[in-house]
Structures are given as structure tokens and as C-alpha cells.
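The following block was generated as part of the benchmark described in Methods. Ligand: pyridoxal-5'-phosphate.
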Amino acid sequence: METKLPYISNLSSSSIPRFYTIIEMAFALPQLFAQIPRYPILYPHPSPIHPLPSLSSRRIRVFAKREDHSSPLACAGNKYRKLEYIIPDILSPSPNHHKHEHDKPEQETETVTGPATTLVTEGAIQSNHTVQVSSLARTLGLNSVVLLHSGTGGGLNTSTDKTAFLRCGNVQMNHLLGAEVRILDESDPLAHDARPVLSELRARGHVPYWIPGGASLHPLGGLGYARAAMEIESQEERMKLPGSGRFDYVFVACGSGSTLGGLIAGFTLLEKLRGGGNSSSSAGSGNCVLPRRNVIGILISPTKPREYHEQRVLAFARRAGALIGLDPGDIVPDVRLDDRFVGTAYGVLDVETRMALEMMAQTESMMLDPVYTAKVARGMMHWVQEGEIREDAQRQGNEYEEINVLFIHTGGQAALGAYADVT
Ligand SMILES: *Cc1c(COP(=O)(O)O)cnc(C)c1O
């Protein structure tokens, strides 16, 4: 894997800019937030938001925010947004957050120091996160090692074409991106503690940088979606939405949790700055009390109970919040997670989820992914069609005639190629 393609210049050392370094700011971040270093790998414009007419009615307007169209890099999805805030540490001459989450902070495990040479991460066999890390590694001129756990979830177990599941989709993407791919089954000790991989890389002269699964446990992992909240606000303003003029409900997948946690931190900061709305503690300056933006996390796996995820998401929201100027008490512990649509296992399409995937393909020509966004779409359709949105809005005193709903498409379609049964 370390052979270099002869006819490709090393872009990271080339003088041709890969991304616009001078960005025409589409929206301004609050001062403290704006000072946090971010290395752009997304397009300089916000990811698009468009209506979903087939899910909308006169009173409930449903839109999609296309995080799968957010970056020119391969298989765009939500992990690129998180990684933008991690790259400055990766490129630092002495990274601060490169260790494995099981390492104690004072533990000095390194013999080699200096800027990272190799990104190392893990995920399920069809992990989208690992592909975005491998792609980032290539963009930065680094190597990547990807650990794929065959025991995570039920995708492999329930597949009738296991060869395809282990080779196609995101596994293929990782290979094409030049990653060193290691498939680990549950009997492999590395599946339970990946640190020996890091030691091995150090022994081979590499400087590994560990990125936890989904980048959520990384101390900077929540910032990307806190910024996304600011981006959404700027889009709301320009879209001239009916009703409250805001997205009253935002539906997003909750896997490792920092997408949801980051969004909560970002929206809470907006409430604090602008007044009205989200948090009960909000004492902003404005006297207009707009209804809150409800961020609803749709759980996609039954492995861990809802309470476990609530605690994690709250911790991620507070950690990101502390970096952008919120006090821990600003983020109220009312993370809204819906666990009714988890299905039978992580990575397994139940009948209803599959119907949601097919319906979105055939009515909106929008391709969902089998692991995350199809479950979110199914959950959101339930909320819309069963009148739960309307009831919830009424309970909150939202009297507007129209309710605006945003579905966040976080990417992941490359996994479909491995789900050979989905036809
Ligand atoms: C990782 C991922 C998610 C979940 O995001 P978390 O921050 O891990 O909760 C949702 N959708 C897709 C397509 C993903 O790859």
C-alpha cells in the first residue's frame, strides 16, 4: 500500500490550493467560535437545503439538508464536517489529541513524536466514517489504517451475500483511497483494544494519530455540527420560511452522537445570543419569543439503551459548548432521542426502513443509506404522518399555521453497494 502512484504529484506539498483558503464567508460565526482553527474541506458555500414535496403538506413543510453534498471529497457525509476542526491538531508539530481514548492523559506511550504521518480509526465493516478519514488522509498526504469490526451490528450476519458485504461498498472505497484495511472479528484481541496497532505503527517509524469511531470522543469532534447550526440559521434567514421562519423540527441520526451533540450546542448558543427560544435558561436580549428549534435524534441501533446515548450526547454538547462560549448550565438536559425506529440491529434494514428507503428513491429521487438516514426518514415520516409533530408543537405553544421540518441527510450511500439484498 505504500507504493506511490508515479504520475500523481503529492498534492499536500504542491502549491496549487486544494480548497479555497480565502473563503467568502456565507455567514459569520460568533467571535469566540470564529477563533477556533478550522481547515476547510467542505465547499465554501453551505450544503444545500431543498424541499421534499412528497412528504410535505400545506401545514407541514419538510426540507432536506444535503450533508452528502457538502464536500468535493469522496463519499461526502457528516464526518468531513467534524474533521475540519480536527485537522489543525493532526497537522500540528505536536498534536494534543492524538491518543487512544483508553490511554490515560499522563501516560507517555510515544517514542516517536512530531506531526502525524498516519491516521488510524475504526468502525463497522460498512463504516462511512472510516472512508472519510481515509479520504482525508490522502488529501493531507498521509497514510491511513482502518480497523473494521465484523462483529459490530448485524449487517454482515444478515447479509445473504457475505462476500459482497466484506468487499463492496465502503470497503471498496477504503481500498481505492489507499487505506490499509484490517478486518477484525470478535475473537481478535485488537477488536477490543486497538492500541497495539498504534504501538506497531510507531515501531515501524510512523507517527499515528488515532481518531475515535465517528470522531465523537475526540475533544474537538462536536464543533463541526455546532458550526452547522449557525449555517442552518443563515439559510433559514435567506429562505424566508413560512410560520416561525425557522426549522421548528430537525431530524438527524444518532450513532456515535456528536452530530446531534454539536447541533444542540450550536442552537443553544444561537438562542443565548439572539434571545427567545431554545433553552429554558435563555435570557437573551430579544423580546420576541420564537418557538424552540427541536432537534430530534433518531437512534439507529438497539445495542445500548436510550439513556446511555442521552448522557453521551449531553456530554458532547457541553464539551463543544464550552469551546464556543457556553456555560455547562446553558445546555439543559433534555436531549430528545427517539428509539422507536432502531429496528432489529445496527446496520440491518427492517421492512419499514426499507420501505422508507425505496419511497424516498422513487418519489424524491433521493438516495438514502441503509444504516442511518433510512431509519431517520422512517422515523420522521412517522412523526409527520401520525400527527406527532403537530401535537408536540401544540404542547409547546407553537401556534403557527405552518411547521417547518428539516431532515439532515448525513451521507452514507456508498454502503448500498454492499447491501446486495436491497434491490
Ligand atoms: C456517522 C454517521 C451518522 C451518525 O453520526 P454520529 O455523529 O456518529 O451520531 C449518521 N449518518 C451517517 C451516514 C453516518 O455516516
